[in-house]
Design brief:
By secondary structure, the chain is mainly α. It folds into two domains: 179 residues, no CATH class; 175 residues, no CATH class. The chain is globular.
Length: 379
């Protein structure tokens, strides 16, 4: 994809996907994570899932017009792509809820498939299909993203239909929204923290810089992927352990998988750092400028894995309100450093800002868990 489209087009697509992610997080209203905790702890309201899906769909009608007005002044997405963004947001918001329902029902394979694997896999297949059909013909990445999102949504609905009966009860929605609000704040701030560097690069530099940085960021996500994969199965067990008041059970659940994730993270980090001079040029000559950026982002991901699944533990153990302040602090630090460093150091400045933000977010969260529950996620 990077060879065929180049860094600038890849950067433009990255900003498009950033906007879809942010709007979908807002539209879900925190109900996805609240549903995960309630269903995992066996406190599910029969109307919770149906209400969550309905109101996330309705809320898009509020948040997307607001984004369109902001986009008119900021210019993050080209106007011809706004319809693709709107439809992608509708599908993604529903996918988020369905994935967490399956995760809570202890279907980790289905959750991973729907929330992570299918979208990338279908996108690659579609790109290969169009490329081999006519090598001189190019389709917008944004259209491929929308088509892939539609197919994932269909698969998610099929997976849930066999396991969940949907009910809607308007009398319970007010309580559910109030309980979900802290999760909305955390989710919104987390996604902003993850993507603020790309937005700052888009604003202060250009799409080419965004493209190079985004590729480096995606490569380093392999370092943290094992922890994310293990966390999928951990969340319901952590929620159950907390509901039973059993911190020792949470510790015994978290430690083995966190240590295994750290081993894979160290191996992946060494591979990326030692092989950077061959890995980045593989995607195109213009990506060779990202050597130092790749190293800094790799260190950031490795530190995150070293601290363990702190975000999941805090959200599943009533630490969500503290976690939102921790994330907010890391976002503020990230934004300040990006604005200071990007004009002079470009992608390397953005990478250093992300590294500092990762250290603050994960280190502070790990210390809170140690004080509150008596253990670190790794030992």
């Amino acid at each position: 994809m990077t060879f065929h489209y180049g860094a600038a087009a890849y950067g433009e697509f990255t900003i498009f996907s950033v906007c879809v992610q942010i709007i979908s997080i807002l539209s879900v209203l925190g109900l996805d994570q609240y549903t995960l905790r309630q269903v995992s702890a066996k406190n599910e309201d029969v109307s919770l899932i149906g209400n969550s899906m309905l109101f996330s769909f309705i809320s898009i009608g509020i948040f997307f017009p607001i984004f369109m007005m902001l986009n008119h002044f900021i210019g993050l997405i080209r106007s011809e792509y706004l319809i693709y963004a709107a439809l992608s947001t509708v599908f993604l918001s529903q996918i988020r809820i369905i994935a967490e329902v399956l995760r809570a029902r202890e279907k980790p394979a289905l959750h991973a498939l729907i929330s992570n694997v299918l979208l990338s896999g279908i996108s690659i297949l579609l790109l290969c299909f169009f490329y081999f059909r006519n090598e001189s013909w190019s389709i917008d990445l944004e259209i491929v993203y929308l088509l892939s999102m539609l197919l994932v949504f269909i698969a998610a609905m099929a997976a849930m239909a066999a396991k969940v009966k949907l009910n809607i009860d308007f009398s319970t929605i007010e309580h559910q929204l109030k309980q979900a609000f802290p999760f909305l704040l955390v989710g919104s701030i987390m996604i902003l923290n993850e993507w603020v560097d790309k937005i700052c690069l888009k604003t202060l530099k250009d799409n080419t810089e965004v493209g190079i940085y985004s590729l480096c960021y995606r490569l380093t996500q392999f370092v943290g992927f094992p922890l994310i994969a293990f966390t999928i199965s951990l969340a319901p067990k952590v929620a159950q352990g907390f509901a039973n008041g059993n911190a020792e059970a949470i510790k015994k659940t978290v430690h083995p998988l966190s240590r295994m994730a750290l081993f894979f993270a160290v191996v992946s980090s060494l591979f990326l750092i030692l092989g950077r001079q061959w890995i980045l040029p593989f995607f195109g000559a213009e990506f060779s400028d990202g050597f130092l950026c790749l190293i800094l982002l790799t260190i950031a991901q490795l530190f995150s894995v070293l601290c363990g699944p702190v975000g999941m533990i805090m959200k599943m153990t009533n630490g969500v309100k503290v976690f939102q302040w921790i994330i907010l602090s890391s976002v503020i630090l990230n934004v300040i450093l990006n604005l200071i460093l990007i004009p002079k150091y470009s992608i390397n400045g953005a990478a250093f800002a992300s590294l500092c933000s990762f250290i603050l977010l994960n280190g502070w969260s790990a210390l809170w868990i140690k004080r509150r529950m008596g253990f670190f996620a790794i030992y």
